[in-house]
Amino acid sequence: MKFHYYMPTRLVASRECLKDHQALLGALGKKAFIMTGGTSAYKNGSLQDLIAALEAQGVAWHHFAGVKPNPSLQEVRQAAGEAKNWGADFIVAIGGGSPMDAAKAVAVLAAGEVTDQELLSQRKFARVLPLAVVPTTSGTGSEVTPYSILTNDEIQSKSFLNSEQVYPAVAFLDGRYTLDLPPAITCATVVDALSHAVEGFLAVRSIPPTRCLAREAMTLMGPLLATLAKREVLTLENRETLLYASTLAGMVIAQSGTTAVHAMGYSLTYFKGLDHGVANGRLLAQYLRFVAKERPGEVKEVLRALGIPNLEDLEEYLGRLVGRLEITPEEIRQFSGIAVKAGNIQNTHPRPSEEDLAEIYRTSSLL
Ligand code: NAP
Ligand code: FE
């Protein structure tokens, strides 16, 4: 057996964990730069809890609100300028993947002079500010990954910052903050997490510990996919399970990476404005059919872990959760050409050609 596993983020999970573990924030410095999205952090109580915890620790804070979904390089530069001018010691992000990913880039950019090219290609930086995060969607797993995914207009897709230095120092998992997630965002983000577990499980870079984490994440998520597909209301316990499962799925992609589904989904987000999880969900079933041609046993293992009898049933759930793909032949040509160049295609086994990707897009639109 041979593998390398590294995940340095301290995880605390409980109702009121920000209050109960506030000393972990105090240990990061005296000046916190808080980053949130538009309004959800005010509404779900996380921002008030964070501010109370910081103030109890004697930490001064400055709030940068309004990180937009799918943050761009320009946006994170602007936020980093503000963090630098204010003299932040550390960053705290509340929200989904967008504020957490933006905060990772800010942690690098506010700590030194780094060009866009260096940000996206270097693994090591002279200095990076410490980061704490409070995830409020059950999706990206960004709280436990070394990735920040940024919209890059130059390549009309997304680029990655990938550095062990941007793993959050600490992540606070409190499922109460996810209670009021609207159904559409709940479904989109759960499907993103599902896609992380499934892709990570089947990835070229999959390793024994991530297969184990992925299996557990799928086992926890499977029954709740059915609950969501039936449009039943989720309980707080269900929400906590989803948050935990999405964090496990994040630990999977932190080591094993994502594959063709993510590579192909980025164009659907960039050009067609689909939510990240929706984009993945509309491609996942056909990707599994593609993989099953060479690895039927492993695709069966995925279905077994999810507790879903066959691919048709999974497809049915996904259709109800994130809808069907609409795409023109011209878009298929363009998007396959972009996706085939993505790094995560090399992490896909069997390795799809540009024609294979076009076929996955095309057949996904026929479902
Ligand atoms: P998001 O883009 O962070 O947020 C989507 C929407 O959800 C926003 O409108 C946000 O509103 C709302 N929202 C967040 N928490 C809420 C809550 N508790 N209640 C109600 N509304 C809430 O969504 P996401 O899917 O979590 O993140 C997507 C981003 O993560 C993409 O850029 C994707 O590429 C990236 N990603 C990163 C990784 C990684 O490893 N780093 C992995 C996969 C994907 P507000 O603006 O009001 O907060
Ligand atoms: Fe994702």
- Number of helical regions: 16
Strand arrangement, major sheet:
1-8-5-4-2-3
Q: Kindly provide the radius of gyration, computed on alpha-carbon positions and rounded to a whole number of angstroms.
A: 20 Å
- DSSP strand tally: 8
Explain this structure:
The structure is a single chain. This protein is of the alpha/beta class. The chain has 16 helices and eight strands. It has helices at 17-20, 23-26, 40-43, 46-56, 73-86, 97-109, 116-121, 183-202, 208-229, 236-256, 260-272, 276-292, 296-306, 311-322, 329-339, 354-364, and strands at residues 10-13, 31-35, 60-64, 90-95, 131-135, 147-152, 157-162, 170-173. Helix 8 (183-202) runs parallel beside helix 10 (236-256), helix 12 crosses helix 16 (354-364) and helix 15 (329-339) packs across helix 16 (354-364). The structure holds NADP nicotinamide-adenine-dinucleotide phosphate and fe (iii) ion. NADP nicotinamide-adenine-dinucleotide phosphate (NAP) is lined by residues 37-41, 44, 69-70, 95-99, 101, 136-137, 139-142, 145, 147-149, 158, 177-178, 180-181, 185, 189, 192, 276-277.
